[in-house]
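Course assignment 3, question 2. Fill in each field.
Student: A.L.
Task: Predict the tertiary structure for the chain below.
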Amino acid sequence: MKTNNVLGTAVVTGASSGLGKVFAERLAKRGYDLKLVARRADKLNELAEVLRAKYGVTVTNYTADLSNTTDLEKIAADIQDDPNIIFLINNAGTSTLAPVSQTSVAKQKEMIDVNITSLVLLSNAVLPGFIKRNEGTLINIGSVLGAYTLPISSVYSGTKGFVVQYTRGLQEEVKGTNIKVQLVNPSITATEIWEVGGVPLSALDQAAIMTTEDCVDAALAGLDAGELVTFPSVHNQQLIDVYEDARIKLFTGSQTGKPAERYLQN
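Answer field:
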């Protein structure tokens, strides 16, 4: 049956599998109509049929490669012109986990195009409407690798580091409004990105792998609780608080026009 009170339309990128698929299901259950974006039309169509039948919501699919400028601009133009869009989840991402010297420029550029450029352009598309209506929710999927780099993750960590700082900046821009901007930093999650990246899940510590369902449910619980930054797998909240406090103290400590004493010659 059709949900009696549709909350508006939610856009989910990378919706054909993994976190995006679960986000789509959870938002449909909450009563959002959906616009789903992914490269695989067959997977999107299967998901849309299930969500329409189960929750009675309207689902519109967009088959698009967000590393392709033409596809990205079409999606951005569509969601910019839709006043019903009240929610955007920038979930689409890609990775190649290997040293830079062993990664083609094309693969490096693809990570930048999908993980950074598409996220920025789609955020740009919805934020003016959110600001005008003083309402809206934006979730950007970052990563714990946005704050840590492995020998095989230089580019990927770089892109996620951008997502972290960009999202924190947006939070400052909308402070005091009814707009919610959440940064979600998952750790190892059971998605296809590992296979795509060249590191199969079977090669990782199985105890450290979180299911997509648990990750999404934690993210949405964090959103409901008003968290600006959600680390689904970090059990000790003090670790997050200390990191945030140190980040602010380091910035504050940099605000001087004099070189640090350790750099001054005797």
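Instructor remarks: The first helix runs from residue 18 to 30. The domain at 9-263 is CATH 3.40.50.720 (Rossmann fold).
Grade: pending
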